[in-house]
Amino acid sequence: MSLETSESHDPSPEEVRAARAKADAKRADAIAARIDAAKSSPPSASRSWDARDALDACERLFRDHPGSLIRERCRDEIFTPSKGRDDGSSSEHVRDLVYGEFGFMSLAALFRKYSDQIPPRAVVADLGSGVGRPLFAAACLRPDLARCVGVEKLGGLHELAGELGALYDAELAPVLGAEPPRVELHRGDFLHGVEWRGANVVLVNSAIFSDELFEKTEARAAEVLSPGALVVTLRRGFADCGHEGACWELLEATERRQSWGMSTVYVHRRTQNSPRRAGIED
Ligand SMILES: C[S@@+](CC[C@H](N)C(=O)[O-])C[C@H]1O[C@@H](n2cnc3c(N)ncnc32)[C@H](O)[C@@H]1O
Predict the structure, then answer these.
(1) How many H-runs (helices) and E-runs (strands) does the chain carry?
(2) What's the 98 CA to ligand 1 centre distance in angstroms?
(3) Lesser CB count within 10 Å: N end or C end of the chain?
(4) Domain 49-270 -> CATH class
(5) Locate the DOT1 domain: which residues (predicted)?
């Protein structure tokens, strides 16, 4: 009897690079083919549309962008000094950038529960939007939104978001009606940009944000959002809540499933009160 020996070995960096380049080229071809197909036989607006249709549509949108690709791009940047980080050294900064996504059903529950507080032509923002999945989900769940705006720091994720944005425009937006939500994906630091100023609903997947980033996010949101705006955070809620003169009213804190497991979802509403100055400049 002979023993079988395995020839397998860990791939060299060159082999990894070559395999990636091949996968990127294959994905680019698939995207181009999908956009061409949508152009040559334009999808028509759907007459009836429910949460199940929204979920199916989002899954179809992501069919060339599996979770493994997204995690790979995120890992590339958080373990490469000077990329995506300000100082390239602090583990707190690495922590702020680690990936996980709002669960679709968690967003569906949110948009259903607060539908009367989200007016037609409202703007939804996602702070740290990754590849944009919650924004595409919001557009499908509320096709009457005007805009879904994301801000993401990491270039690799922003690039994938751009690919998905082009697919959304070609394949999905036409199905959502005559005036579908515009999905805008910006690269930058949401603490300093003004892209989300005046948004009606702001999603913050803060499950692993450092205390410093979370506190700055709260202060910035108090500065740039108008009374009535809803802000959704994960794992912890805003501090300036539940007292006279507070900037935020806590509407609920509920456990819901996200891409990695259960997390508490905090929903806050901006009050009329003026914020304390946080010292963050535009
Ligand atoms: C946990 S992921 C969430 C992605 C997306 N919101 C979702 O739920 O699918 C958090 C994202 O926030 C980004 N991020 C962290 N700090 C940021 C900042 N100051 N400005 C922009 N993006 C930031 C990270 O790069 C990461 O992609």
Answers:
(1) 8, 7
(2) 8
(3) N
(4) alpha beta
(5) 96-235
Report how far residue 192's alpha carbon sits from residue 43's, in angstroms, rounded to the nearest whole number.
38
In contact, 245 and 260? CB cutoff 8 Å: no
- The tens place of each residue's pLDDT in the chain, 282 residues long, gives 444 445 568 889 899 899 999 999 999 999 999 999 999 998 888 778 899 999 999 999 999 999 999 999 988 887 765 544 444 445 556 666 678 999 999 999 999 999 999 999 999 999 999 999 999 999 999 999 999 999 999 999 999 999 999 999 999 999 999 999 999 999 999 999 999 999 999 999 999 999 999 999 999 999 999 999 999 999 999 999 999 999 999 999 999 999 999 999 999 999 999 886 655 555
End-to-end Cα distance, the chain: 73
Residues 6+ apart with CB under 8 A from 133: 58, 62, 101, 102
Tell me, in angstroms, the distance from the centre of ligand 1 to residue 178's CA: 31
Residue owning the nearest CA to atom 2 of ligand 1 = 99
DSSP labels, 93-155: HHHHH------HHHHHHHHHHTGGGS-TT-EEEEES-TT-HHHHHHHHH-TT-SEEEEEE--H
Query: What residue ranges do the domains of the chain occupy?
Result: 49-270
Please choose, from the candidates 196, 189, 203, 192, the residue with its C-alpha nearest in 3D space to the C-alpha of residue 268. 203
Q: Which amino acid, 279?
A: G
131 alpha-carbon distance from chain centroid: 6
Ligand 1 pocket residue status of 77, Cβ below 6 Å: no
